[in-house]
Amino acid sequence: MISAADIQSQMTAPPDNLERLPAKTMGQTEFLNLLVTQMRNQDPLKPVSDTEFIAQMAQFTSLEQTKEMSADLQQLRQSYNLTQGTALMGKPVKVATGEKENQVFTNGIVTDIKVNKDGDVSVILNGQTYDLDSVIEVHSETPQQP
Which of 26-30, 55-59, 102-106, 108-112 has the lowest mean pLDDT? Predict the structure, then answer.
């Protein structure tokens, strides 16, 4: 039986400055190192079964493929938005900004497009920058110059 004195003797004071380290996602190398450590330290009388090992590998492979697919979808979305923005060049559009109750509508011709570092596409009309998502109308005819 463990007494309170035994527990108290094992406890140490916390360090003065506790720093929180950011959580790191586990990559393939870390997973394999963890798996090898698990196999080295397992109870020889109760080893991990082959099916558990295969299930762990399958889960990890599925996770890696999902992460890759997510990155590919993000690139595809950015490419699609760039194509949409390029198609709006020189076209008269209507954009809506603000909340639904206080929406402001602006009309103008898209003179430029801009892509920020995250890959988000914006259109520029009347010297102002608007998110591509704020475009609510596109007119096919270009207004005639007087």
Answer: 26-30
Cα–Cα distance for residue pair 138/11, rounded to 1 Å:
69
20 within a domain of the structure (yes/no):
no
Q: Which amino acid is at 57?
A: M
Question: Which residue range forms the structural domain that includes residue 91?
Answer: 83-138
Q: Strand ranges (DSSP E) for 31-103? A: 92-97
| Residue 90: exposure state from Cβ atoms within 10 A (0-12, 13-18, ≥19) | exposed
Element housing 6 (H / E):
helix 4-10
Q: How many domains does the chain have?
A: 1
Give residue 98's pLDDT band: very low, low, confident or very high (50, 70, 90): confident
The structure tokens listed for 143 are: 């207004």
Check which CATH number belongs to the domain holding 92 and give it: 2.30.30.140
Apex CA 116: angle with CA 113 and CA 122, to 5°?
A: 35
Among 99, 102, 108, 100, which Cα is nearest to 135's?
A: 108
The answer to whether residue 106 is domain-embedded is: yes
